[in-house]
From TrEMBL:
Protein function: Involved in the biosynthesis of tetrahydrobiopterin, an essential cofactor of aromatic amino acid hydroxylases. Catalyzes the transformation of 7,8-dihydroneopterin triphosphate into 6-pyruvoyl tetrahydropterin.
Cofactor(s) required, per the database record: Zn(2+)
SUPFAM superfamilies: Tetrahydrobiopterin biosynthesis enzymes-like
Key words of the record: Lyase, Metal-binding, Tetrahydrobiopterin biosynthesis, Zinc
Protein name: 6-pyruvoyl tetrahydrobiopterin synthase
EC nos: 4.2.3.12
Domain of life of the organism encoding this protein: Eukaryota
Assigned GO CC terms: mitochondrion
Family affiliation: Belongs to the PTPS family.
The protein's enzyme class: lyase
Pathway assigned to this chain's UniProt record: Cofactor biosynthesis; tetrahydrobiopterin biosynthesis; tetrahydrobiopterin from 7,8-dihydroneopterin triphosphate: step 1/3
GO terms under biological process: tetrahydrobiopterin biosynthetic process
Organism: Seriola lalandi dorsalis
MF term (GO), any: 6-pyruvoyltetrahydropterin synthase activity
Length: 77
């Protein structure tokens, strides 16, 4: 087992769902006060914050599906 799924779910809740879900990113999330809220920048925000709470080296990529044909993949580059 790489990580306990209960722990992963808690990390996702704390880092992604609570600060971002049903929010106006530009007004409600301080990070986006100075960064344009594109899907690419959302992926960077999620990566940066997930990397803080996950064990080192565990995070591989963040993939966001904006539409069926528009997908953002970020691997911390």
């Amino acid at each position: 087992m790489v990580m306990n799924l209960t722990d992963l779910k808690r990390c996702i809740e704390d880092v992604i769902m609570t600060p971002l879900d049903h929010k106006n990113l530009d007004k409600d999330v301080p990070y986006f006060a100075s960064v344009v809220s594109t899907t690419e920048n959302v992926a960077v925000y999620i990566w940066d914050n997930m990397a803080k709470v996950l064990p080192p080296g565990l995070l591989y990529e963040i993939k966001i599906y904006e539409t069926d044909k528009n997908v953002v993949v970020y691997r911390g580059e």
